[in-house]
Specification:
DNA polymerase, domain 1
């Protein structure tokens, strides 16, 4: 029995080639791409402009698999929704839908778990299980669109995993999402985040990819950052700064700095001064994200007063910073938390059954 080809992770050109190999004219590939990515249709019976014989042929040779929703938690604070998806092999990932007025953002995962061990991140508790395919990355977005009925305007690769360690699949997914015959989301609305894999940032710059870049910084002292984010021992803050400066100089684009603010950890006046100094060396903007507490971890969420004081120390009173309050604090919107809760619930249920 021959394995079926997964259509969702294929680019428009790949679909054109695929249908031509089946004996069809290439424009059928354009039609397939449009149905999947513009209309979020994954049922061949609904693709009414495709000949019935061709649809029958596709059923035998191809599939369109989107992740299964096993849990969805709406926020009572905001309109955000957090999804827990099950993949075909049974592994699970998280995706967050964040509506803010006309802006409809989806935060996508790039890996099942993560290998980098950041101390304040729930995903780190999973370790790395595997990379996601381009189809599984795009599939998250299609599933959210089908469930919410919303037109998505912004994409951030800031969910589970380190996007730069799944470089090719993340970029392929980003180009599929951007394609103007599909979702047609502007490159200015697609942001790829990294903890600072400097060699990949340089590759991204050299290859002239048009998407926006964000650095999860979270500390400006080498020792402090290494204690929070072990990757710092391999790629120092200085390495990250040099790679990012090369990106901003060559692309003429600003980079976004993400700074998760933790009370008593990285919010001192000295932290603020070092962050201000770092920003002066780079064409950037700053997103400050008040820490979303994780059960069992020592880190604390800052108060509004602590947050305002930190920002004032960074900016000198000038308005230069965006505060990204965690969307849906009540739904444990930090990456990995819904996964951990689901695993613990499964274990409890299995224990009850066994007893």
């Amino acid at each position: 029995m021959t394995s079926q080809v997964e259509l969702i992770g294929m680019t428009r050109d790949e679909l054109r080639l695929f249908v031509s190999e089946l004996g069809e004219r290439q424009f059928r590939g354009n039609q397939l791409f449009s149905w999947i990515h513009e209309h979020a249709v994954v049922d061949l019976d609904e693709m009414t402009n495709l000949p019935k014989e061709f649809r029958s042929q596709l059923r035998l040779s191809a599939e369109m698999d989107i992740p299964e929703i096993v849990d969805m938690v709406p926020s009572s604070d905001t309109s955000s929704r957090k999804f827990l998806f099950k993949l075909r092999d049974g592994l699970k990932i998280e995706t967050v839908f964040i509506p803010e007025g006309k802006r409809k953002t989806v935060c996508l995962s790039s890996q099942v778990g993560c290998s980098l061990g950041c101390k304040f991140c729930a995903t780190a508790k999973m370790g790395l299980l595997r990379n996601l395919t381009a189809g599984e990355i795009v599939g998250q977005l299609l599933a959210v669109r089908r469930e919410t009925g919303e037109r998505i305007t912004n994409i951030v690769f800031m969910g589970m995993g380190e996007p730069m360690l799944n470089y090719q699949n993340v970029l392929k997914a980003a180009y599929i999402i951007h394609d103007d015959d599909g979702m047609n989301i502007s490159t200015r609305k697609i942001t790829i985040s990294t903890v600072g894999i400097a060699r990949k940032i340089r590759q991204f710059t050299k290859e002239k990819h048009p998407f926006k870049l964000a650095l999860s910084l979270n500390a400006t002292d080498e020792t402090q950052r290494a204690s929070l984010m072990p990757i710092t021992k391999k790629y120092s803050i200085k390495d990250c700064l040099e790679a990012l400066k090369e990106y901003t100089d060559r692309s003429r684009k600003r980079v976004t700095l993400e700074y998760v603010l933790m009370s008593g950890t990285n919010d001192s006046p000295a932290d603020a001064r070092r962050l201000a100094s770092f920003m002066k060396k780079l064409n950037c903007k700053l997103n400050v994200i008040p820490y979303n507490p994780i059960v069992g971890e020592p880190f604390k969420r800052p108060t509004v007063h602590q947050l305002e004081k930190f920002i004032s120390n960074v900016t000198g009173g000038r308005s230069m910073v965006t505060v990204r309050w965690s969307q849906g604090k009540d739904i444990n919107a930090a990456c990995g938390q819904l996964y951990v809760e689901n695993v613990e619930k499964t274990v409890r249920n299995q224990t009850v059954v066994s007893a």
